[in-house]
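Handout, page 2. Input:
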Amino acid sequence: MSGRYAKTPQTGATPADTDVPAVAYVRMSTDHQKYSTENQLDVIRNYATARGLTILRVFEDSGRSGLRLDGREALQKLMSEVISDQADFKQGHPCL
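Output:
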């Protein structure tokens, strides 16, 4: 699955005033890579929780090399949101 991004399901809890909207980016180049995108996302979610960040969306590029930008549709979409000032988040936590 390449170039995917998903909204994080809402739990129904009202975020605290200190919560900062954020997104996560995960990437895995092969199925044999040691740290799957699920493992990366677990680490990112723990990081976010500990720092008062609310992950709005997850951008994911699976099966993509980290050496080049082309072919990494999710990363390109994330960058496009930031560059165009359309981002609804303040923080991003990449696992490149």
